[in-house]
Amino acid sequence: MTSTGLANRREFERAVARLPVDRPFAFLAADIDGLKATNDTFGHAPGDELITAVGTAISSVVRRGDTVARVGGDEFAVLMLDASPETASRLGQRIQDAVGRTRVATGAARLSVGYCTAQAGDPEIVRRMVDGALYRAKHEGRARTIVRDVNDAAPLAVPAEAFQWSGRFGAPRVAP
To answer: Among 31, 66, 74, 131, which one carries the catalytic annotation?
Structure first.
């Protein structure tokens, strides 16, 4: 458990390892826009307030049973089981809306989001696609959501350092 009350990276990775191999799922990754500037300008206490407020906003709109985690300093992840592309899209929009309504002492919160859904399959492939989508959201102007389709064979040009929020999901998935 993190200071936000959300699952941490290790708990998130355990949830991924428990994914059934034959069920649809979605990963969503989110990154607070401008946290470094907030910390540099106002100090770390307001930055911590921003992190907590964003975590609260995200957790307020997910479905019961979804796994929400703070997986890095300003990075969050959501794991959704039995999620269609439409369900994941709606969640991405609800998260953007909830965070957009979030106000802290330093102003409004902004978030970049990337997500990908899969009918079944290797969560590591999906995670890499989500990382690429989040990287693209950050570099196309921030405060946006980018979707990747796991069946899209065209890779995004993403430098290796963009893959910050997770290591490999090393544990095998659980067969039904």
So the answer is: 74
